[in-house]
Amino acid sequence: MKRTTIRPENVHQAALLRLLRDGGRSRAELGDVVDLSRSKLNVELDRLVELGLAEPDGLAASRGGRRSGRVRLSQATRFAGIDVGATSIDVAVTDGELKVLGHLSEPCDIREGPAAVLDRAIDLLGKLHRDGLYDELTGAGIGVPGPVSFAEGVPVVPPIMPGWDRYPVRETIGQALCCPTMVDNDVNIMALGELHTGLARSVGDFLLVKIGTGIGCGIVVDGKIYRGVSGSAGDIGHIRVDDLGPVCSCGNSGCLEAYFGGAALAREAVEVARSGGSPYLAERLAVAGTLTAEDVGAAAAQGDAGAIGLIRDGGRRVGQVLASLVSFFNPGLVIIAGGVAKLGHVLLAEIRSVVYRRSLPLATGNLPIVLSELGETAGVIGATRLISDHVYSAN
Ligand SMILES: [Zn+2]
């Protein structure tokens, strides 16, 4: 059965809902930050309460005169966030302020195809429903690890997602969950998560570089995701760093991702182990028969020179690309995120040294380059931010 999610009736109501998403507050405090007369503000707030989008929340402490009534988003508001990775799936349910009420994560191979993977996401959300975390969803956001046509809500020729090309992800999830749904790529939703609750909360212009199985970059301009004309902005994993480099999943050679995605790192780790460059990795390989990016991180943490060399090489190449991006975009912050970012300080130190050396002082003088602190929740929170931006906009 198709429900209709109630949306704000005008831009003022939409702006008030987005403010309340950052936390409930008094009518007087709202009056300080919106460009509305006190009486008009009260009309719009009363209307939001009537629509069931917001609700009264007692009285605020006095600011000298009459105590002002507090308002918050309806406590029945529930958003779902789905973060589909190459090798894992995360789902979460949040309240209207995007606080996570429940979060489930499990391994999942994107190559199983859209029907199986999206079914899994819906099953996991069903579990949160049975746990009593929601009755009805106000909206759902989903991120997938590949290029997405944002307007159509479909992946477009995603290199590591066989069977997903133009699959109707938005329609499938929207119909299954009976709520407005939006799809974006996983990197953009991570950037939105950082914007909502992470290190980028107070930064309008920043870059989020995700180094996972692949490599991508979320571009935030003036607090909004910049997607480009067709949705492929920030696809930096396929910038060529060496004409004679290894063949990439996209079919070209020498892409950044072919050197330093999770898959490339695992492959190089095997080479180093076999060539005698790392006793630690050789031992892991003998036991497990295969190596992963996590093994490289564990080896580096033990001081293994071969593993540290791999991370430095990768960090240097990421740094080269990032130095160009910093010169071009002049961001206020760069966040490094994703599974490979767990390699930590060796990686961060190498990236920083290349970027600070290669970019102009005016661009890097006040430029923090940091590791994400949100971990697995960045994607799911960002997915709920994406759909809440839509639901909290005027029709
Ligand atoms: Zn490529």
Automatic annotation (TrEMBL):
The UniProt keyword set, sorted, is:
Kinase, Transferase
| GO terms, molecular function | kinase activity
* PROSITE patterns on file: ROK
Regarding protein family, the annotation reads: Belongs to the ROK (NagC/XylR) family.
Name of the featured protein: Sugar kinase
